[in-house]
Amino acid sequence: xxxxxxxxxxxxxxxxxxxxxxxxxxxxxxxxxxxxxxxxxxxxxxxxxxxxxxxxxxxxxxxxxxxxxxxxxxxxxxxxxxxxxxxxxxxxxxxxxxxxxxxxxxxxxxxxxxxxxxxxxxxxxxxxxxxxxxxxxxxxxxxxxxxxxxxxxxxxxxxxxxxxxxxxxxxxxxxxxxxxxxxxxxxxxxxxxxxxxxxxxxxxxxxxxxxxxxxxxxxxxxxxxxxxxxxxxxxxxxxxxxxxxxxxxxxxxxxxxxxxxxxxxxxxxxxxxxxxxxxxxxxxxxxxxxxxxxxxxxxxxxxxxxxxxxxxxxxxxxxxxxxxxxxxxxxxxxxxxxxxxxxxxxxxxxxxxxxxxxxx
Length: 360
Ligand code: SAH
Known about the structure:
The protein is of the alpha/beta class and about 350 residues long. The chain has helices at about 15-25, 30-40, 55-65, 140-155, 170-180, 205-210, 225-235, 240-255, 275-285, 310-320, 340-360; strands at about 5, 10, 65-70, 75-80, 85-90, 95-105, 110, 115-120, 135, 155-160, 195-200, 215-220, 260-265, 290-295, 325-330. The chain has 11 helices and 15 strands.
């Protein structure tokens, strides 16, 4: 049953259709009402009970008294002049902010969403984790990012990637509920195959996800080919070894039949040598996987640099020559605060500076 609660009220948009039906039955409502309301929330994407015009005023008022209806405030929008990518900073009901990105591709529109406010994984090159974890996002707050963007742009979202701020597997139950609702044929009905979830590699959660036998794409942030090197970039590597991760990826493929994606951020002089490429080939070969090379996006708090363009190309060529399926991630929105968590961080810091100014 739905146990997401905000201000002592149950969060209605985080309920699956079955849960909503059960919930409204306690108010004496028939199943078809639940279906109507679910459609208002997850197909018509209305932003309040008041917009549900075929629901009686009495029921709308009862719902408003009993349930929380989440919505996002648009705090800031940045649009790239290069490729039309839009970055949104959204305000949540408790005053926290999260960022989401809208990208236009030939094959459709893609939205990258956040799964947590902040992050506690501590990856060294990532801006989202610098201030730690504030809280998990509710399923509704993950859905809202997509719903509000679809409304604001007026264009259908066809692909979703959970690659914004946060570690989705660290918010596992809410993530799963989010996936169920987003891909429900009674809702926005986004194909599971058009949904990618990226993880730094929480092995037990990856195993649990495998059991769900979903058709989503699982992306593993690998970034290094030896435990020693990975530990320098990602604290989670102290917990789970690369050998364990590879076994888990094989298990995931066996259970779901879905090819895994390895994300590999190329950091100049750190993980981009021919030797690294050779080791990456050895890891990738036994698995059915795809490698996505990401030129690291430098953040000002750390001194990591991007690999030279020629090095990136040479790295890719070496993988390709060895029969590995590889792409280099196109940098979208390079002229706006592109790297994960940079926009939110800039916003929070400027608020802090303003508050300090007021106190002084
Ligand atoms: N926590 C999840 C998803 C969030 S980040 C994960 O770790 O996978 C999405 C991807 O961007 C991850 O592969 C992450 O390691 C990478 N990333 C984060 N900051 C980056 C940066 N500054 N440059 C390049 N890649 C970065």
